[in-house]
Design a protein that fits this description.
This protein is an alpha+beta fold. It folds into two domains: 75 residues, Ubiquitin-like (UB roll) (Roll), CATH 3.10.20; 151 residues, Aldehyde Oxidoreductase, domain 3 (Alpha-Beta Complex). Helices cover 27% and strands 30% of the residues. The relative contact order is 0.19.
């Protein structure tokens, strides 16, 4: 008796394959590697991306030898733009994906709601759309060359939303454990974002500025490296996906408390 899994593709993989979801029939005892090889056999256009994709099973990054069960979701994670929650979650952890603008009203709300009377520091990072390109995702080099020298006119963001939120919650737990910062908000745009508009905001409150700065930097750096959120740069005559292969977990902590 076999098993069936649901395969999901995103961003440049979805465009190359021409589909976003597919039901895949496999033999009992099949692993993540078997599923990926079956996808490649059915969709050879994805072969060039094989070295740079990551695979998630039911919303969590998975090893190639992890066995599959009937009804599992297998998400193939292309290069991205950019454990459990633990025993003691942050006092405030707000993680959101939104298609609404990140405007002054939201920033004012975060300034009011994230810090408490015990917090002497509030670090607020806002990322906005610039007109200069980022490094193209693997496989997008030819498309990037076609638009060399042209200004970026806007961005499109896409995400595996359930998994992205889970990763953001993991990052929030890591911020609490590593820096003792337990009041954090991370909000990221999806869809079309115009030039100079805000695409992401990270807000961290702490008793002292060093912890707030460290927490804010850690959260945005880990979001860019791990969250399954994809960015496409739009030009007047086309578009290019940008990013790098996703990192599947946090970097280890060195003896001095900083990341390796």
């Amino acid at each position: 008796m076999g098993l069936q899994v649901r395969v999901r593709l995103f961003a440049m993989l979805r465009e190359k394959a021409g589909w976003s979801e597919h039901r895949l029939d496999l033999e009992q005892g099949s692993t993540i590697a078997h599923a990926w090889q079956a996808v490649l056999a059915e969709t050879p256009a994805l072969e060039p991306y094989a070295p740079v994709v990551r695979i998630a099973r039911n919303g969590r990054y998975a090893a190639e030898d992890e066995p599959l069960s009937d009804g599992d979701e297998v998400a193939v994670i292309p290069p991205v733009a950019g454990g459990s929650l633990g025993d003691e979650p942050p006092s405030l952890l707000r993680c959101e994906l939104t298609r609404e603008p990140i405007a002054g009203e939201l920033l004012d709300e975060l300034r009011r709601s994230v810090p408490t009377a015990a917090d002497g520091a509030l670090a607020l990072f806002v990322g906005q759309v610039r007109d200069t390109p980022g490094p193209p995702a693997p496989g997008e080099e030819a498309a990037a060359a076609e638009h060399a020298g042209q200004p970026v006119v806007g961005l499109d963001y896409e995400a595996h939303e359930e998994m992205a939120l889970a990763v953001l919650h993991d990052i929030g737990a890591e911020v609490a454990e590593r820096f003792g910062v337990r009041r954090l908000a991370v909000i990221h745009r999806l869809g079309a974002v115009a030039l100079t508009e805000s695409s992401v905001v990270v807000c961290a409150a702490a008793g002292h500025r060093a912890a707030a700065f460290d927490a804010c930097r850690y959260a945005i750096d880990e979001l860019k490296a791990r969250a399954p959120i994809w960015k496409r740069e739009r030009y007047a005559s086309g578009a290019v996906w940008v990013g790098a292969p996703a990192r599947q977990s946090a970097l280890p902590v060195k003896e001095d408390g900083r990341r390796a």
